[in-house]
Design goal:
The complex is a heterodimer of chains A (about 325) and B (about 260).
Chain A: H1 2-6, H2 9-29, H3 35-60, H4 68-88, H5 97-123, H6 128-147, E1 158-159, H7 167-185, H8 188-198, H9 200-204, H10 210-236, E2 238-239, H11 246-259, H12 264-289, H13 296-310
Antiparallel strand pairs in A: 1-2
Helix pairs in contact in A: 3-7, 3-10, 3-11, 3-12, 4-5, 4-6, 4-10, 5-10, 8-10, 11-12, 12-13
Chain B: E1 7-18, E2 21-32, E3 36-40, H1 47-54, E4 62-67, E5 70-71, H2 77-83, E6 85-87, H3 100-108, H4 116-121, H5 124-143, H6 159-172, E7 177-181, H7 189-205, E8 209-213, H8 217-223, E9 226-231, E10 234-239, H9 241-245, H10 248-255
Parallel strand pairs in B: 3-8, 3-9, 6-7, 7-8
Antiparallel strand pairs in B: 1-2, 1-4, 4-5, 9-10
Helix pairs in contact in B: 3-5, 3-6, 5-6
């Protein structure tokens, strides 16, 4: 029995996910988790999507992208614009709002993926630091463009986005994202991406089209970032250019590196740990200690430094067993 | 009438310069099927550059390269691999942080390619491809006496095994032509003997044509049926081992000119 359990990692992953979902639902309906805490949990889940998708680009394929929130912005604005427009139309209730929302999210993802391809293609000639600068620049370009499009609110942001991101939808989207990325990484395509990270020249010389895989990493990473952005916009009912600046991109990057670059398990764990720490534990602790909330980022940064000194490989550099599919 | 042997690799008048430096000039080669030929020459003679030109790492400034009758000049490395040329590297270039098995499976990727969609939904196409890839990789590893190491991280293998793994990974791409860049580097005489045996074996078993670069003369002189000698990018001599050993230009290139 124990052996069967160990040999079915995908089933285990799904059981863990369902158990976590039921637990959170119970805690929420029992009043133990208030609305504010549920929003934090939702943000944690969205960070899981953002971090695992960035991990595909940075950790698996070994490209150094630092503009991930730029893709999320595209997803947020495309999905947000779609739903706000659709919501103005008369609806007699015959069209399911959930279905419309899924369409909106996928459109946002596709929009982000197209931008990802556009950025990926010219950026491919660059490596390491140079690629980082280009992605940083592109992230800012996306933000600036949005800032100047009046139709989506410009610097005021896109307001009045319907509150469609329920806990259930976010949870399902997160699990689906993790499953897809996990199956992709543990396949011959995933190994091809890893070979680009390990030694791109050697990969080319064993028949891997490295250019193609670099673009694919960007496209797939951007797609899921777009989904994450769409979910975020419909959670806080707002999409604002300042949410998607490079500071926001760095927060996602930090999640990936603190979790352990290349490890999906690490990204998931760190998304929860860091978000809860930053948004809940630290403010509470500071209040208790009688310090102002402005100390939050100081302590947060200090903790990051400590982790990087004592555990430079990240919290969870190796994949948990249930994250490796049985048929790998 | 004796049958003319098929030419696997044909290089005509190939030249390449880095800036003002002529790394390879006017290089010609007609490599018949099934042979083991060698390129030797002092450091910086342009031997590895020839390999890099053939495999598409660099694009030659002049000349033409044909692989199995097909022009490959200026093609991308992965297309040249797909057409049947594989190589190893002077300084081993494995995918160091991943398991031995995955190194070989990556070499096999081009032969079996279920779509990304197949992989994500884990359908039959994906499962069949993965099964075949795993089986063939394990066979190949067993062939190189590495099957016990399949799950080990590649960079943790001892030097000799890393060299063997690199050859196994090259063979995973199912090549017709194998380019070995200093396969005997850093090996002791005993290991060199074993390597020699292995080169013969894989040539016959995988029906390969082999072109190699080597500094260990004992190895080259014994294994290569024909040897080309390069110096400063030029081909200064070619012939069978005994001709090369007594060629005054070769001796000069290696030992320098006499004083008087």
């Amino acid at each position: 029995m124990k052996k069967v359990w160990r040999n079915l990692p995908t089933l285990r992953l799904l059981i863990y996910a369902v158990a976590l979902y039921i637990l959170l639902m119970l805690l929420s309906s029992g009043g133990i988790l208030n609305d504010y805490l549920m929003i934090i949990i939702n943000i944690c889940l969205i960070y899981v999507i953002l971090a695992t998708s960035l991990n595909l680009i940075n950790g698996i394929t070994g490209l150094f992208s630092v503009g991930h929130m730029g893709f999320a912005a595209v997803g947020a604005y495309v999905a947000g614009t779609f739903t706000t427009l659709v919501w103005k139309l008369p609806n007699d209730g015959s069209v399911s709002t959930t279905l419309l929302f899924i369409v909106a999210l996928v459109l946002g993802g596709i929009g982000a993926a197209i931008v990802g391809a556009l950025i990926g293609m010219p950026a491919l000639r660059l490596k390491g630091d140079y690629l980082a600068i280009v992605t940083l620049g592109f992230g800012e370009i996306i933000r600036t463009i949005i800032n100047n499009i009046d139709a989506v609110g410009g610097p005021r942001g896109l307001l009045g986005i319907p509150a469609l991101s329920s806990f259930t939808i976010i949870f399902v989207a997160t699990v689906v994202t993790v499953l897809i990325l996990r199956y992709l990484v543990y396949s011959s395509h995933g190994r091809a991406m890893i070979s680009v990270r390990e030694d791109a020249t050697a990969a080319d010389l064993v028949g891997i089209n490295t250019t193609k895989y670099k673009v694919w990493a960007f496209v797939i990473g951007a797609f899921f970032a777009g989904i994450g952005g769409g979910l975020l916009a419909h959670l806080i009912q707002l999409a604002h250019p300042t949410q998607y600046g490079f500071y926001a991109s760095f927060l996602v990057l930090i999640v990936v590196y603190i979790g352990g670059v290349g490890s999906m398990t690490g990204s998931i764990l760190a998304a929860f740990v860091l978000t809860i720490l930053e948004k809940y534990l630290l403010p509470m602790l500071l209040q208790w200690a009688g310090l102002g909330v402005e100390w939050r980022m100081v302590i947060y940064s200090l903790l990051l430094i400590i982790v990087m000194i004592y555990r430079p490989e990240g919290l969870m550099p190796r994949e948990a067993k249930f994250m490796i599919p049985e048929d790998h | 009438m004796p049958e003319e042997k098929k030419v696997v690799l044909k290089i005509d008048q190939m030249s390449h310069s880095f800036g003002g430096l002529k790394a390879v000039s006017n290089f010609n080669l007609d490599l018949p099927e099934g042979v083991i030929w060698g390129i030797i020459g002092p450091n910086g003679a342009g031997k590895t550059t020839v390999f890099n030109l053939v495999t598409g790492v660099y694009r030659p400034s002049q000349g033409h390269i044909h692989l199995l009758g097909e022009e490959i000049t200026g093609k991308k490395p992965f297309t040249i691999v797909a057409k049947g040329a594989a190589r190893t590297f002077q300084n081993i270039r494995l995918f160091g942080n991943i398991p031995v098995l995955d190194n070989v499976r990556i070499g096999m990727h081009k032969n079996y390619r279920p779509s990304m969609f197949d992989c994500v939904i884990r359908d039959g196409k994906f499962r069949r491809a993965e099964k075949k890839m795993r089986e063939e990789s394990m066979e190949l590893l067993a062939r190189f006496n590495l099957h016990g190491r399949a799950d080990e991280i590649a960079k943790n293998l001892p030097y000799g095994e890393q060299r063997r793994l690199e050859i196994a990974r090259a063979l995973a791409t199912n090549p017709k032509l194998l380019l070995l860049d200093e396969p005997a580097a850093g090996m002791n005489p005993n290991e060199v003997d074993k390597l020699m045996e292995m080169v013969y074996l894989i040539r016959d078993e995988f029906k390969l044509t082999i072109l190699l670069i080597e500094h260990q003369m004992r190895f080259v002189m014994r294994i290569c049926e024909w040897i080309k000698v390069m110096d400063f990018g030029e081909t200064i001599a070619e012939g069978v081992a005994s001709q090369i050993q007594n060629n005054p230009r070769v001796i000069e290139a290696y030992l320098g000119k006499g004083v008087n």
